[in-house]
Amino acid sequence: MAVTEPAPVTTSPAHEGILRRQAQRESAARTYARSLPIVPVRARGLTIEGADGRRYLDCLSGAGTLALGHNHPVVLEAIRKVIDSGAPLHVLDLATPVKDAFTTELFATLPREFADNARIQFCGPAGTDAVEAAFTLVRAATGRTGLLAFTGAYHGMTAGALAASGGATDVQVTRLPFPQEYRCPFGVGGERGAEIAAHWSEHLLDDPKAGVPAPAGMIVEPVQGEGGVNPAPDNWLRRMREITAERGIALIADEVQTGVGRTGAFWAVEHSGVVPDVMVLSKAIGGSLPLAVIVYRSELDLWQPGAHAGTFRGNQLAMAAGAATLKYVRENRLAERAAALGDRMLARLQELRRDHPGIGDVRGRGLMIGVELVDPEAAPAGRSDRPTAPPPDPALAALVQQECLSRGLIVELGGRHSAVVRLLPPLTLTDEQATAVVDRLADALSAAERSPHRRTTAGPHH
């Protein structure tokens, strides 16, 4: 598939009016619309066309939702088939042929050891609702109230999910250190940093004076997404499995963004061989439509009817689109494709570091890629006798995002200081498109580094 060059900007009163009315009518809490002032009207695969006639390569993909890109033919066919059949679209949690087909396909993709002894709960349509369901489940099964989560985590916007993500609520969450190679919380990095993080967590849980509420579950992202694309080291994740199993704590894998081939394995826990007790799934499992579930060991199925419900947990169109997506990814080995193409993109991005000192780190897994931007001229924080990474540069990252958009490339920012440029292209990305994405990002970075507005765009460094 040929890469579409960005079309010239055209004057569009309708486009400008829509954006103006959005700013007038929608809340101050809107997010993507602030940094991406476009009005999508058509889309296919990697490409979005705006109302102003411009075309963009979409490496946001609905925050990782669009495993097959926009309007993939197998997804559209599955949706049309349900609509044309006259089947009910709203069924609460009743059994339907569409639901049965989705569940069967989903279980076929799960690790066999897990799927053979699993139950599924359909939740409200958002991933955060599935996170809440997972918390309710493990509390009911264990009789405990505490939860374990990690620094830098993001699990949603509801009360429990916010607490696990670092928000202030009355939910009893103990935060444990998440190992990072580039910004190791213990200043050593590598296997040693992960080792210390695991030892710290184990010691905290076994210290009767640590003040840790008895934990029902530990929730972890195999790759932290919003936290800055930080892959969990495989040995460390295996250690978390041992620590939780030894103490009767349910291990909850949040695969909302990492699932369905995104990281180069169908489910990201497969990289480490870890079998969790609960998997939280959303985003790509709905084939671009809202759907969220938890899948868990049958021994945990001790909650009462109605313990967790949701009016829109029977989304038939999403289940049909999701089943088609899961099958297409599985049959076409798109997870393996994401692993190979992701490695090539990471290698090319690593090469850019030679000419761009503003690139502090390039990391990721599969087609979940992050480029952390730094200010190499600023003095690193910390002791002078201990080498540390340069401080993050959110101003540069914001400019890179703007320059990308002007070149017809949509990217998102993440990380603790919004200094990580994130790439989440669809798994159907071609070699030619992957090259175009990196080329446009490199060009945008060069332009941003030369910009006189670099120091004033996003405020001071953190």
From TrEMBL:
Which GO terms label this protein's molecular function in UniProt? Answer: diaminobutyrate-2-oxoglutarate transaminase activity; pyridoxal phosphate binding
Entry's Gene3D superfamilies? Answer: Aspartate Aminotransferase, domain 1, Type I PLP-dependent aspartate aminotransferase-like (Major domain)
Give the Enzyme Commission number: 2.6.1.76
The yes or no answer to whether the keyword Transcription regulation is present is no
Name the top EC class.
transferase
| Alphabetized InterPro entries for the sequence | Aminotrans_3, Aminotrans_3_PPA_site, Dat, PyrdxlP-dep_Trfase, PyrdxlP-dep_Trfase_major, PyrdxlP-dep_Trfase_small
What pathway, per the record? Amine and polyamine biosynthesis; ectoine biosynthesis; L-ectoine from L-aspartate 4-semialdehyde: step 1/3
Supply the alphabetized keyword list. Answer: Aminotransferase, Pyridoxal phosphate, Transferase
Q: What is one Pfam family matched by this protein?
A: Aminotran_3
Name its co-factor(s).
pyridoxal 5'-phosphate
Q: Which domain of life is it from?
A: Bacteria
* Similarity field: Belongs to the class-III pyridoxal-phosphate-dependent aminotransferase family.
User: What name goes with this protein?
Assistant: Diaminobutyrate--2-oxoglutarate transaminase
- Originating organism: Streptomyces fulvorobeus
